């Protein structure tokens, strides 16, 4: 190889595949600006260096025969360092970055730019040879992709992609779509859409493009014009080049922000919005990042918050940061040395019930058949109202929001498949809120579930009542007729089904027992049961005591001639003590009675048999505090706030009757005065304020 070509190989190797790219996505992006910067220390342009290596003298041999020979020798020596073809590949990316309608060429004309880089005229034998030789360049791209994969990410994670439409030219185009600045923005997008590192849930490329369109709708996210143009033009069928590239970036994303100016990579997590207390309170929450159980973050130029991992893999510590109209409309960002939390502004927020918190939390996609809430800014209320009314079914309740300028829609649910499909097809500025996830695999949802599968690894999705089978969510079909092959218990049938709308399996008469349903590529197993039986269900044991009526609490009350159940009568004298659950992380906790009594709630030590067999972190996030007779409130303090919990039904809580000197009782009540709006608690707060005023006097 000539000296200029070798120099370019060294510079490109260091620039794109150096040690700093280890375990990170790497993109061989070379446009005119990058080529000019790199060429300053070389003295020869990239196209000129590559042109010298071409074989024009022997028409019977390939145009890139010299470089092909170098690549073969490189492979024989153990493939040390990037392949010798690197400058050729970089030049093909430079050609891809110039693809726009200009100089009499269409935007789609890659080969016109490729030929122009070598200074050749179109429609000549040399131009035709350059075009035909690009098949060898495609092989070189595949060789680079394989080398990166074999290196295990130590030289960077490959983003080289293509599709059936482009194939050969798809390789350089995939590298031309994403600039360095785009990669930086995309890591923010991955965090904002709450993608897990390395995409363990296998969110599809098409689903990522859907979320990306929503994220960029109406807002400048500072993605390059070329990237935005390709995003707008990407079709929604098949795994396109754009979808493959974004998914590859997502699969390689390690959960950190791409910040070249920082030596230390910071993890990124998207903030969620939680509507709590039946829609009366808003809070910020964030899912805990792997490996960071505790961290400190701050509003730029403002307050600092200490985050600690709590139950449900959620960070506690943001309770005192109340979401405001300004934050919802313009975004929210909390930064620390290790962690960045960000809320992306949006006019409409979709919420679903959180499985661990039991509150309504913002989510990324609509789940047909499930209940949702929608938080909408006043400017979007009219369209959202029209959109949810078009779903049909039960009337949606519209209530005031905890923040001014927003409304809350409760009970949003899609149970009519036809109405749901029409609402989606009608579109609108906020139709994306109703978009379900684009799936690559079949899935089940809804149904009258008896229990989840309890045998790990059995592959059973769950147990359902017969007649209440779950709905089948089909993956998107790429066939021309839009039909998908559905396999149910070995029988195959083609269905024309909208992948956005679940297919109700309850319409098919299915027998009791296991069933397998899905497509030829992915399926789910579930079981159906008749539930309660009038007689003994199959498989039940035959030994037991018969009983034709109600059981008596005492044996002496049973008639000798009648059937009865023999058992023990537990008198009130041995009633179990009353207990209350308290989080283990509280700094202090106290029990209060109506008469000025205060008793500290202390954590009971773990029994010896438990402490000796289980690690400390397996003891659970809560402790049991025994509640003596007469105590009706529990107040406790976490690192960020006081809270209060009623220990009896509201009707059973006596009116407060403390004495004037019960200052400790009054202090405990007033510490959590604003944490409950129950009328009974407000009476206790009023009594405590009376004691406080006398004390102050």
Please give the structural blueprint.
Blueprint (H helix, E strand, L loop, with lengths): L2 H15 L7 E2 L5 H8 L6 H6 L13 H12 L9 H12 L12 H8 L7 H8 L1 H17 L6 E2 L11 H7 L3 H13 L12 H12 L8 H9 L7 H12 L14 E4 L1 E5 L4 E5 L8 E5 L5 E7 L3 E3 L8 H6 L1 E4 L3 E5 L4 E6 L6 E3 L9 E6 H12 L7 E4 L5 E7 L4 H10 L16 E3 L3 E3 L8 E6 L5 E3 L10 E5 L2 E5 L7 E2 L8 E6 L4 E7 L48 E6 L4 E5 L5 E3 L7 H4 L10 E6 L5 E5 L4 E5 L16 H9 L7 H18 L1
Parallel strand pairs: 1-2, 3-10, 18-24
Antiparallel strand pairs: 4-5, 4-12, 6-7, 7-8, 9-10, 11-12, 11-13, 13-15, 14-15, 16-19, 17-18, 19-22, 20-21, 20-23, 23-24, 25-28, 26-27, 26-29, 29-30
Helix pairs in contact: 5-6, 5-9, 11-13, 18-19
List keywords for this structure.
single chain; 697 residues; alpha+beta; seven-stranded antiparallel sheet; six-stranded mixed sheet; 28% helix
């Amino acid at each position: 190889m000539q000296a200029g070509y070798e120099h370019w190989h060294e510079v490109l190797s260091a620039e794109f595949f150096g040690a700093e790219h280890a375990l990170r996505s790497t993109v061989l992006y070379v446009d005119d600006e990058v080529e000019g910067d790199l060429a300053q220390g070389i003295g020869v342009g990239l196209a000129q260096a590559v042109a010298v290596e071409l074989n024009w003298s022997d028409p019977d041999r390939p145009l890139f025969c010299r470089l092909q020979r170098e690549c073969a020798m490189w492979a024989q020596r153990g493939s040390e360092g990037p392949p010798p073809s690197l400058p050729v590949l970089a030049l093909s990316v430079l050609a891809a970055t110039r693809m726009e309608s200009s100089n009499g060429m269409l935007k789609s004309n890659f080969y016109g730019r490729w030929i122009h880089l070598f200074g050749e005229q179109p429609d000549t034998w040399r131009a035709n040879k350059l075009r035909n030789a690009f098949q060898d360049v495609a092989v070189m791209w595949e060789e680079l992709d394989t080398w990166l994969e074999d290196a295990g990410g130590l030289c960077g994670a490959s983003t080289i992609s293509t599709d059936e439409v482009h194939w050969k030219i798809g390789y350089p185009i995939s590298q031309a779509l994403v600039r360095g600045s785009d990669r930086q923005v995309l890591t923010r997008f991955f965090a904002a859409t709450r993608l897990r590192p390395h995409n363990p849930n296998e969110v599809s490329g098409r689903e990522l493009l859907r979320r990306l369109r929503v994220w960029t709708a109406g807002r400048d996210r500072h993605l390059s014009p070329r990237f935005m143009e390709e995003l707008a033009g990407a079709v929604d069928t098949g795994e396109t080049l754009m979808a493959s590239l974004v998914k590859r970036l997502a699969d390689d994303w390690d959960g950190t922000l791409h910040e070249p100016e920082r030596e230390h990579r910071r993890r990124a997590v998207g903030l969620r919005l939680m509507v709590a207390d039946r829609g009366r309170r808003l809070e910020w929450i964030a899912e805990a990042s792997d490996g960071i159980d505790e961290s400190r973050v701050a509003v730029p130029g403002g307050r600092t918050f200490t985050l600690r991992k709590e139950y449900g893999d959620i960070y506690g510590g943001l309770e005192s940061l109340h979401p405001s109209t300004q934050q919802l409309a313009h975004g929210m960002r909390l930064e620390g040395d290790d962690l960045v939390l960000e809320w992306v502004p949006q006019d409409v927020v979709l919420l679903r019930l959180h499985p661990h918190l039991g509150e309504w939390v913002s989510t990324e996609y609509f789940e047909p058949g499930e209940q949702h809430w929608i938080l909408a800014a006043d400017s979007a209320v009219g369209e959202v109202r029209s959109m949810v009314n078009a779903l049909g079914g039960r009337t949606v309740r519209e209530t005031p929001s905890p923040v001014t300028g927003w409304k809350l829609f409760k009970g949003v649910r899609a149970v009519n498949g036809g109405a749901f499909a029409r609402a989606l097809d009608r579109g609108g500025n906020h139709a994306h809120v109703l978009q379900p996830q684009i799936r690559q695999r079949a899935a089940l949802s809804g149904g009258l579930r008896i229990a989840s599968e309890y045998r790990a690894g059995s592959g059973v999705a769950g147990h359902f009542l017969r007649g209440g089978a779950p709905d089948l969510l089909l993956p998107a079909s790429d066939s021309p007729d839009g039909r998908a092959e559905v396999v149910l218990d070995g029988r195959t049938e083609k269905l024309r089904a909208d992948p956005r709308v679940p297919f109700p399996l309850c319409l098919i008469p299915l027998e009791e027992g296991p069933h397998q349903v899905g497509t030829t590529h992915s399926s789910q197993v579930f079981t159906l049961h008749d539930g309660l039986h009038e007689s003994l269900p199959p498989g039940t044991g035959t030994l037991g005591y018969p009983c034709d009526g109600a059981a008596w609490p005492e044996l002496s009350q049973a008639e000798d001639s009648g059937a009865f159940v023999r058992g023990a009568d537990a008198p009130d004298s041995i009633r179990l003590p009353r207990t209350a659950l308290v989080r283990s992380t509280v700094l202090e906790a106290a029990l209060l009675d109506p008469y000025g009594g205060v008793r500290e709630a202390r954590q009971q030590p773990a029994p010896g048999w438990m402490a000796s067999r289980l690690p400390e972190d397996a003891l659970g996030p809560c402790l049991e505090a025994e509640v003596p007779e007469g105590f009706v409130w529990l107040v406790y303090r976490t690192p960020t706030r006081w809270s209060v919990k009623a220990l009896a039904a509201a009707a059973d809580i006596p009116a407060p009757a403390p004495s004037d000197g019960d200052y400790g009782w009054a202090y405990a009540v007033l510490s959590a005065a604003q944490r409950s709006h129950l009328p009974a608690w407000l009476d206790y707060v009023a009594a405590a304020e009376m004691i406080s005023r006398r004390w102050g006097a």
